[in-house]
Amino acid sequence: MTLAPQRAAETLAEIVEDLGFEMIIEAAELIESVAISTREAALRRDRAEVRLRLGHLRRAVIAAIQTITEMDCEQGTVL
User: Fold this and answer.
1) Which pLDDT does position 78 carry in this prediction?
2) By the 8 A CB rule, do 11 and 3 touch?
3) What pTM did the predictor assign?
């Protein structure tokens, strides 16, 4: 059975959207983990570790924002 071109495009769009949300879930889990590590470093008053973890946190948040922005741009919306 072959899908009509329109249905195939819709199916592909759904798959891409699902992948995007999976990427956001992974980024959110990473953000959570890094936030916990940052808090623990701050409790230890370890300035170098806090700086390192904040850099990781920044990159993870940027990745999540870029992912949702790319997903929205496909629909004509920009975050």
Assistant:
1) 47
2) yes
3) 0.73
